[in-house]
Write a structure and sequence with these properties.
SH3 type barrels, 3 helices, single chain, alpha+beta, 5-stranded antiparallel beta sheet
Length: 136
Amino acid sequence: MSVPSIAAYTAPAATTQAKSTTSTNSKNELSMQDFFTLLAAQLSNQDMNNPVDSTQFISQMAQFSALSATQELSSTVSNLSAVSYIGKNIKATQIDSNGVATYINGIAEKVEFLSGETYITVDGNRVSTNEITQVS
């Protein structure tokens, strides 16, 4: 009886597709709504003869709340640091939808907070903090 080698094994297409679908999610964040949806699903699908201990749910909620607070604090600190860029020389790279890069170099004039994003105006050009490559 012949046994195929492991090297000859290829993953099924469904497994490969599942991995690529997961990576297309641009925001890998779990919102409070997502957490409660998962919690409700967990409660409705638990074994009634062996229910999950309620302290586990409280522990999960506490961990999620701590994580959420930490993310909010990180965002606030990031916004405050962006204000310190005013008057400094900023270099940024913007890439348009065609993949063409535009290099921006100049003095930061103002900071704007729009739709949860932080933008800095550099010589009349609005750049995202994610596009900044150098501050001096």
